[in-house]
Protein: ComF family protein
Amino acid sequence: METLLQFMKRAWNNFVDLLYPVSCLGCGDNLTPNEEVLCVQCRVKLPVTDLSKTRNSGVALQFAGKVPLDFAYSYLTFSKKGIVQRLIHQIKYKGRKEAGAVLGRWFGYELKEKCEEIAEANLLIGVPLHPVRRRQRGFNQSEWIANGLSEALQIPVNTTALKRTRFEASQTKKGKGARWENVHDVFAVADAEAIRGRRVVLVDDVLTTGATLEACATQLLNAGCASVGILTLAAAR
Structure:
């Protein structure tokens, strides 16, 4: 039975929603009290990937012969001017970090149901930002996605074991070769004990060339973790 405090809290939240309605990040319509981030219509339209494919998926094959991975999964397909691009833009540049956590949670429940490899993982690490970039943005979007995954998968998040040692400009317009040159030596393990012998999962927002994740995974494996898996919220076509 609902307590008086719970009733008052729900009534207050409903009142606030009436005054300051929360908008769907997909279409801009007001969300109902039972919706998060996206309205039902936009959530149904999300371009969710086929998580039954792992070893032979485009995501996994992108790292083949470069770095050994336990698995590599992406939740959504990223395309220019599509709904996923709008979501990522809202998360990274409009401060909607809570959307990253919600989408991470949805991703986690899908993984839990469809991907048995995830059961062996025991540590989540978001791809780190340089302190300068973190101060500019106010948060690390990959950590918020990792927090959502953690809630669904019950795997802890570590935010200090891996660090970015050099500030770099945005890589959005760089090709694969340039991206690798830009990042291959900018990550370092700051706490080897925290990852030694652990099955680590790297978390990022969008997989493009894979250079950043490859560089991070290489550092983690060299520092003694048992294995590395990769989870990204989206993957570019």
Summary: Confidence is low (pLDDT under 50) at residues 15-20. The chain has two domains: 1-45, 47-236.
